[in-house]
Design brief:
About 70% of the residues lie in helices and about 0% in strands. By secondary structure, the protein is mainly α. The longest helix is centred in the N-terminal third of the chain and has 24 residues, at about 5-25.
Length: about 240
Amino acid sequence: MMSPFMAELIGMMILILLGNGVVANVVLNKTKGNNGGWIVITFGWAIAVFTAVYISSKGSGAHLNPVVTLALAFLGKFQWANVPMYILAQFLGAMMGSTLVYIAYKQHYDETEDVGLIKATFCNEPAIRNTFHNLITEIIATFALVFGVLFLAGPENSLGSLDALPVALLVLGIGLSLGGATGYAINPARDLGPRIMHAILPIKNKGTSDWGYSWIPVVGPVIGALVAVFVFGLM
C-alpha cells in the first residue's frame, strides 16, 4: 500500500493529467479531439476523478483537494498534524500532472496562438469577469462538492475505491450544472498548482498567468468548504 503522501501525490497527478489533458485535447489546435465541447470536458474530468479516487483511496482516503482535507480536519475526522503533508502532496501532484499534459501535447501547444486557450489547459478563468459573482460561484460549487463528499465519506474518512463512482458523478454534475460561469475550480491545488507551472514552463504564446484572478479559485473553495462543514454539523 502507498503511503498517504504518495497516494495523494500520485492521485492528484493522475487527476490533473486526465482532467487538464481532456481540456488540452478539446481546445488546442490540430488535436483529434479539437472542438469536442463542454460535455467532453466535463465527462473527461469525471473520469479523471474516478481514476484518481480509485487509485489513492486505500493509501490516503483520496482527499485530492486541500478543502476536503480542511473540512475533515475541522469536523474532527482527520488529524490536523497531517494537514500540511496532504496539502503539500496535492500541490506537488497537481504541478506534476500539468507538466505531463504539457509534454504530451507539446506539438499542439506550439500550434496554438490563442493565449486564453493555452491557459485554459492549466487553470481557470471566468466566462464573465466579475470578482463578486466569480467568488460566489466558486463558493456555491465547492459547497456542493464538500457537502456531498461528507455524506459519501466512510467511517474512517476514506471514500473507498467503491465510492469512486459516486464522487465522479458528483463532480460531473457540478461541472454540467455550475461549471459554465468560472470553470468550476472547486479545488485550490487543481488551479494554483498548474497556474504556477503555466508561469514556469517555456510555453510558446502563453501570455500571462492572470495572477489577479488566481486568488478566487483558492479563497472561494475554502469559504465554500467551511460553509459545508457548518451546515453538515447542524445535521
